Amino acid sequence: MADKEPVTELDARFSSDKATPTSWREARGILEAAEIYWLTTIRRDGSPHVTPLIGIWQDGALHFCTGPTEQKARNLEADARCVLTTGANSLTTGVDVVVEGTAVLVEDEARLGRLAEAYEAKYGHDWHFDVEDGAFTHEAGRALVFGVAPERGFGFAREGEYGQTRWRF
């Protein structure tokens, strides 16, 4: 997956008069640097499921892993649509970023190897993964890896001016 440059628009309905849109470059930097993301998936009964997790921005997508029997994996098996969110958790500073997309199972072992290296570089040796049979492996077992390329995104800036940006890919 390559990084796509989206159409960027400021939504004046939810922005201060002097607000400017947040660039996708800035938003992508926030996605790359974040340590925690919130994943929202859809349960089989249609209700939402939200959980925090760690992840890696690489090749135009946000990647995360999960055990095959965990709720998020079961949800994605039935409906791959999801939302990933990260941000500042402050009312007056920072930018929150929301990415909507479709989770795609990553099974290519070369790509998984690059992602495993990126996890360890970002989060340290406790997050070392080996690659085997199209998945991550570690002492806790097997972990499926998913990539979510943005289909639509939103940025909520609070640096002096409140601004809501929309990115369409």
TrEMBL record:
The keyword Oxidoreductase applies. Pfam families: PNPOx_N. InterPro entries: F420H2_bilvrd_red/Heme_oxyg, Pyridox_Oxase_N, Split_barrel_FMN-bd. Keywords: Oxidoreductase. Residues 25-152 form the Pyridoxamine 5'-phosphate oxidase N-terminal domain. SUPFAM superfamilies: FMN-binding split barrel. PANTHER family: HEME OXYGENASE HI_0854-RELATED, PYRIDOXAMINE 5'-PHOSPHATE OXIDASE-RELATED FMN-BINDING. This is Pyridoxamine 5'-phosphate oxidase family protein.
